[in-house]
Amino acid sequence: xxxxxxxxxxxTTTVTEVHGLRCDEFVAIWTPDVGYTVLSIxxxxxxxxxxxxxxxxxxxxxxxxEDMGGSEALRSGERWVDLAEELRVRGVEISDASMDDCTxxxxxxxGAKLTLSARAGQPVVTTRLHPGPLTS
Length: 136
Description:
Helices cover 4% and strands 48% of the residues.
């Protein structure tokens, strides 16, 4: 039996379906004056795309960066950022992914954390990255 796809469009939610899944890749589009607008994470072979807009988490399973046009689809000033490298989470499991009070927090088993905040009427996505420990 095939499992249902993960989708969300909520102001308050916990994405329990991804808890315990290992991060293979994690990239995001960074836009000047806005921040991270579209984030794509590959968890155990399956791509998930998400973002925070107008105080709401939008999450959809099944779209890779290539499905969204890759680098060719970037507008002037936009760039892809390798968050798996910046957060040091490649091969690390997600321990929590929750949205509450206009803030989305994704925590990894090594202590790394991504926080995205965007209130209704606020075009800027406030982002905080807390990388996991360096490994040798």
